[in-house]
Amino acid sequence: MDEFALIRRYFQPLQQPRQGTAEESVSVGIGDDCAVLNVPEGRQLVVSIDTLVEGTHFLADTPPEQLAWRLLGACVSDLAAMGATPSWLTLALTLPHADEAWVSAFSAALSEATQLYRIRLVGGDTTRGPLTLTAQVHGFVKTDTALLRSNAQIGDLICVTGTLGDSRAGLETLLTKSSSNTVVEYLRQRFYRPQPRISTGQLISAYASACIDISDGLLGDIQHIMDQSEVGAQINPEALPLSAEIQHFTDDKTAREWALSGGEDFELCFTVPPEQWLSLQAHLQNHDVQVTPVGAICEAKGLQLFSQGEWCAVAANGYKHF
Ligand code: ADP
Ligand code: MG
Prior knowledge:
The protein is of the alpha+beta class. It folds into 2 domains: 3-142, CATH 3.30.1330.10; 157-314, Phosphoribosyl-aminoimidazole Synthetase, Chain A, domain 2 (Alpha-Beta Complex). It has helices at residues 3-10, 64-81, 100-117, 166-175, 182-192, 198-204, 218-229, 244-249, 252-261, 274-284; strands at residues 26-28, 36-37, 43-53, 85-95, 120-128, 132-142, 157-161, 210-213, 232-235, 268-272, 291-298, 303-307, 310-314. The strands form 3 sheets. Strands 8-10-7-11-9-12-13 form a 7-stranded mixed beta sheet, sandwiched between helices. A 4-stranded mixed beta sheet has the order 3-6-4-5. Strand 1 and strand 2 form a beta hairpin. The longest helix is centred in the first third of the chain and has 18 residues, at 64-81. The structure holds adenosine-5'-diphosphate and magnesium ion (MG).
């Protein structure tokens, strides 16, 4: 099957409008030199790109389904962290050979993920070489409402969504070849299938002062808010939300370490002025994602953790790529 037949068969169908997306947002999609896209009146375009390289970000022989979910989940999580609504996706695939079974499985999972996140594939590039997957996602925010990293204020509460450390625990189940049970499967799914907090990002955007998605671990990622907002932060490890599954899988100390610095949870960490907290809580009552305060922004620069009755300064130790 040649490149163009592959694109027509496995990628063109993913440009169909997803449930909840605007038909008219795509004037020209896959098949011409460029896509021609329409940004709605009063919205700004929010764009982010992510690459997965075999050997660096995933092991050889990782199933294509997992790569599709992981690639899109991580990318869409960046949109969620801005409070944006996903709209369009472009995809650059570098494949060692035209393995139709691989492309077919990848495309089926990507199709499912694009339905779930309501994002339309509008173009891409297909080349030969070492397996590398790049996704660029586009989304909309109402003009001047994007949630930034740079606006946290002294006294703001630091909150996180969902539960932390599960993805790191899921990785552990793979490294230690834990035998399957419901706890192990739950943790593995949290690792394989990040759930970008799209609706939570939109919900908090009217209240939060700053936001980031947790990809490298809470300790590393809060550092970006601290740097860009020029503030310090205090976090209480005892307050970190842990799933029942992680508590079942490991001891409390390890679970809290993973919650602090394990990567790839793709939850949101955001700051909210104390005077906004009550109204935000009221809005969160019927929301399906839990939000937990875990600390506060402070004037003293640097990061402090509460330990044995006192605040202790710590070096940020989020995972660094270089
Ligand atoms: P060009 O050579 O003009 O860049 P291509 O041959 O690379 O065009 O691509 C032809 C069309 O197919 C373009 O519309 C492009 O966006 C689309 N396309 C190529 N690869 C992919 C892919 N992996 N996913 C989605 N669309 C793709
Ligand atoms: Mg091209």
